[in-house]
Give the backbone structure.
Amino acid sequence: MSFGIFKLSLNFFAPAITSGDADTIYLTYDDGPDAEHTSSILAFLKEEEVAASFFVIGSKVEENPQTMREIAGGNHFIGNHSFSHAPLFQFWKTKRVFEDLKKSADTIAVYQHPSRKAFRPPIGIMNPNIAKAALLVRTAIIGWNNRTLDTTTTDVEKLWRRTKRKLEKGKTIVLLHDNRPQALQLTKRIVQWGKENGMKFDTVEHLINELT
């Protein structure tokens, strides 16, 4: 059971989307919007005509409305990454988790139609309370199968080697963090490699739509 808490792909507590088409790269960013780093990523994605998915923290949405407008105006998908991203989020009761997710969803609805919903649990941890709250919010749950570990080092070469190995194995839902300076350089490597190898780019919203 404890393994199921940390591995969304097991669908132990709730169904989660953790893989996509092997010929399509799904760039996903957590923990923003970030006043310092998100805009540079958005500018690059616009230049390359690549759409991505941003799993935002509600409190940061309130702090960075201009960046949110940039995300919404860039043909990107906005997902819910909780309002608080609290350190003890996984220990909360269902009611408190629901209230947090609903508050975050309401902040996102200012920038994206409320029918377009997806949730990525903070730290990727799932348990019965979080699963029940997600069900109450009526949201899809999105994981990943290519974790770049860009929160652990600023060494872009090291991060890229790890990411590339997984891309070559068809693991294409890529987890990055748009509040980290290394995310932009890593994004550039991924997009360059993807275009050189005939890969498509898409948002996770299309994976949700395929299931509904």
The radius of gyration is 16 Å. Residues 1-6 have pLDDT under 50 and may be disordered. The first strand starts at residue 24 and ends at 32.
